[in-house]
Amino acid sequence: MAGVTFRDETAAGKPLAAWTVAGLPDRMTVGELIRLRVREEVDRHNACPGERFTGLVRPDDAETELNGYRLREPRRIDWERQAEIAERAFLANGFFVLAGDRQAEDLDEIVDLTRDPDLVFIKLVALVGG
After folding, report:
1. Do residues 30 and 107 touch, judged by C-beta distance below 8 A?
2. Residue 90: in which H helix or E strand, if any?
3. How far apart are the C-alpha atoms of 9 and 122, rounded to whole Å?
4. What is the rounded CA–CA span in Å between residue 122 and residue 109?
5. What phi, psi does 88 have (nearest 5°)?
């Protein structure tokens, strides 16, 4: 059984957050890993719902804030809906996933977690005025 460490970094390489999930198969697709990451962060939020959600992608009806999203009111979030949003964002280059020294380019790409146990997520920020 393998484990994976999910790391969020800025485009300049500044670490933002990291956490590990153990007990995983040795090989998973990028899509499965994105869904796992989203499910874990939504589970943490739903354990104690608040007005702020810190996650990979913006939930429906939330406003973007520095390092997170503000919900109109505290509520539970549907992890499957968030996973769909995350998969679409990945396909539209809303964020990048780095496995080892390479960029993942497809949801069906296999990641060997025994060789590349660290996944780095880099969110892209839209430029203001351009």
Report:
1. yes
2. helix 79-91
3. 5
4. 18
5. -65, -40
pLDDT for the residue 124: 80
Q: CB of 25 within 8 A of CB of 2? A: yes
The answer, yes or no, to whether residue 21 has pLDDT greater than 90, is yes
Distance, CA of 122 to CA of 125 (rounded, Å) = 10
Q: What is the pLDDT of residue 130?
A: 46
**Which of helix, strand or coil describes residue 21?**
strand
**Residue of 95, 127, 119, 123 whose CA lies nearest to 30:** 119
> Does residue 58 sit in helix, strand or coil?
coil
User: How far is 125 from 54, CA to CA, in rounded Å?
Assistant: 16
Contacts of 28 (CB under 8 A, 6+ apart): 4, 36, 110, 111, 113
Domains of the chain: 2-123 (3.10.20.90)
CA-nearest of 101, 97, 99, 50 to 77 is 50
Tokens 């590349």, residue located: 116
